[in-house]
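Bench notes, afternoon.
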Amino acid sequence: RTVPAPRGSREPYLAEGLGATHSTENLMSAVIQDLCCGKDVAVIGAPGEGKTAFVRMLAAALGYGSHEVYTIHLFKDMTSRDLIQRRCTDPDGNTYWKDTPLVDAAEAGGLLVLDGLHRLSPDTLASIHGLLFDRDMWLSDGDHLVSEERYREMRANGVTAELRRVSSSFRVVALAAPPSGKASEQWITAEILPLFSWHGLPVMGEEAKLQVMTMNSATSPEVQETLSKLLKLNKRMVEESKGNGWGLSLRQLLRLARRAATHPDTLSSDLHRTVMSAFWPPSLRLPFQELVAQHFEDSAGTDQEGQIEVKVQDGVLDIGGAQLPIGRPAAPELVPKTLFYYIPRHLLRLREMVRDLQSGEKHLLLIGNQGTGKNKLADHLLQLLEWEREYIQLHRDTTVQSLTVQPTLEAGVVGWEDSPLVRAVKHGRVLVCDEADKAPTEVVCVLKGLVEDGEMHLADGRRILRDAPASEDVIPVHPEFRMFVLANRPGFPFLGNDFFRECGDVFAVHVVENPDHESEVALLQQYAPDVPEHILRRLSAAFTDVRARVDDGTLQYPYSTRELVNVVKHLQSFPKTHLPSLLEDVLDFERHNIHALRVLHEIFQKHGIPLSGQHEEFLVAPEELADLLVAERWLLQLMPHLTSRTQQVELTERKSPYIYDWNDPKIALSESRIGRFTEEVRRWKVPMTRNPYAEQQILAASPLPGGMAVLTATGGRPDQLLFFDLTLKHTMDTCKRLTLDWDFAYRWLDNPVLFPVGGVLGIGGIDQGKLFLVDWREQRVQEMTLPAVFTERWPGNHGVNAADRAQCTVVDGRVLVWHPKAAGILMIDVEERKCLIIDLKQDPRPHWVEMLTKKEFLVHFKTGAPMYLRHRGAGGTQGVDVYEVSPLAADGGMPCLGELNHVRPAPAEATLSKADTTSTCCKAEAVYGMIRRDPRGSFKHTRKPHHFGADSFEVYLAPRDADPRTPVSTCHVPGGLICTATRSRSDDDVIEIVDPAHNSCRSIYPSALGSTDAEGHDGRVAAVIAVETGEVAVCHQSGVVQIVDLDRERASQNRREWRAMIGTAGAEGEALRVTRPGKRGEATVRDRRLALRRGLEELGEAERSARRGRGARGGDAG
């Protein structure tokens, strides 16, 4: 039996670009059978799974041309007027009823597609029940739509007025998403169920999806393997999503397949862009990144920037290897011209946009926060390609009519002209649709129909159709028509529609985020070339932290690069502007939120940018020392019979058997030069273990390449090593912590020593013949055992005085180890893993060793003159020559050696060379040795004289009238400064900085530096160390670390930068204000304690006087 089927005006054909699978063919057969029976059908399927493509296949199979398929995109607030007939105005100002595509399809016998049936209100759908059931419906203008049979019957009965016929070929196909689990979204009701014959879009298996993807992309084996991995990943995403919506739609899979055919190496980053994982919360984003990492190599989710260049050659635009031909605009005035600065992040975005266009994508979606450069990127790409642009900006009052036609007023007559959208479709231009997330849902649905279906109904009755001949009522889509849609991210604070959820998968998505720190600084430098770079870097880092607080919900407004560019442009034009007041103008969004203001103040202060408050400057003035006097002369005489016996021993190395715990604790770093400018640059408190029953303090500290290390102890027992990366400066917010095993600390670290060696940290262990090397960047600990022939001479060490234990010093990667109660010195070359044993006489035994240069050192003894040792040959473990030192008084007589014997040794990294501090050889004219102070407050300087011969030394004494103080720790700062922490019983520790080149000294109280409300240290310094940045780290026993800048020239430069930042740069002629120690504009800690004591005494005296007065009045009650 033959059943007539509804059909269009064409012969059945095959839709281009589509391939049918076995499941879709079965669905096609069932749907056609229902249509042949006169039923309307509804197809339910997930978004992006092929419902629209199935309708195109269905229309092609039934012979419906593109002009015979009428699509209505339904939305939630749609009324019966929008669905059936709407009120319009003619050129004369008269109103009339205008048919919608529904009525046009019914009369013309077309195929009506109701896209988004699940969105439509049941009341609106009820207005077409009659049309769906009986092909009978009354229109708003009074006309009556009836079926063909009834039309003939009524015409036979003489009824002709207000009668319109529904063609027998008219059919309705409704497309909808399946109901979700929520009760409010159960849209299939008893009233809707009888209207259609229901069909479910079959869920494609992996083989079917791979078949469809292969039809739409290249078929090389590499691409096939990549697509198979992509499908496996999608399956895992669906299994592990747990309702989070991780699964990729078929439309997205097809786009990724096309991209993989041309750029398979970037599929991971393309996947992250497709699902916009950058906008996900960390609880979803991090598991997704781990899942992608299991399938693809470039799993970080960020493209590789590298070196991307923009070239134009032979009419072709090349951006990092992605090429597109440059257009020939018919209207050059429509090609945008915009100010654009190249930075790595924007170049990367431009390259990815060109790659998508190169792979066949026509419509792009640029989505991100406001002010991130979406308009700049779109306009500049069009400028490079010389493509004509039409621009339209959507808003909350945008309607479908205003989107398609625009009213004009000419010669007093209201007219209508095509909108930019229609002009772009006609002439093949690029439509830049800005603020798409602000448009109502019906407008978004119309845009989806234009992009995906190539169909759009205009307010004046015309239709935009793809692959249709041009006519009075039809506007064909130009093959070069493209659309760049710009939208803000969904959610707070933009509160627009969720554009991506509605139709985001029909576009090639590009997430435009704020540039990274380096890219943003490069951009700011081009906008404001005269603003100091350090200000731009601080501002960029502060705004980056502010955006991070927006992401975690602490702040609300997402401050973007646009606000930052406006700030630096203002500084460029008005360099004397007060930066805090300028920032307050930008941050006024949070003015009435006290919590947000507090957070903003903390962030900007962290980066050294004050937002308010008074500003003052204090630096310590130098104190001139007395002239250096020659105290002694030392003559050197080679003693061949005392030449040491050398023995070369290989050191054993093995991985330490102890278990270590590495982690990254947070630290609260604060900038010090905000309200006050002092020597202190920044400070932080090292994270201590929480133990309320034992005292916690810093034991030792050591510089490292690019950072520093701190050893802390609880109850006197070392418990953790902390490593700080000082190259991060004010952006350092974490450190690397190595928790030490208790048994390890008890056994090997009874007398811990820290020192840098070979780029890692050395920690001993020296007493027990162990040397541990800690590589904090690789998180590795190695153990070295000292030769037994050397350590077996040492007596027991546990419980003895620290002065009678094994000591060590380091210079240029070589470690010198000696024991005060055992003869001999051990020199270890860590890099070569070799050592040299220097055998000395049993008596005297070395008391301490002083490094002069990298190859020369003095061995001091408790009694008698020191010995001078010099390396032979180029190797670090060659033999040494031993010289006897004969001290002479300045006048040529014998000196008083007791004056030299009580000098406390300083750490051996304190090597000083006036001519060349990094020289590896001895120079006769070079000043080297140490400046150190003895308990009487004098400084001693050891150097080689110019006139006394190559084998001699002079000891200079610079007496200074000062209170006796005990040295605690010493370091040598690049530039020839010697920094020593000294201690007395009656006052806080003092940092004394000696400048031998200018014969001056400065004394600084660390407790008086920084802000006036800074707390956390007890005035006791554990160590001072010179770090690679040229600054000094002052480590307090309480756990506070201060970074202090002692360079006078750098301080003057930093002061000028500081004044420029706070807006007081006009007073360039003012001298730098300095103070003497203890007169810094505010009292020292000792002065404050004395003032408090005097105040309490005065208060007590006043109370006693008051009691005596009350007693004299006879006990009257006060």
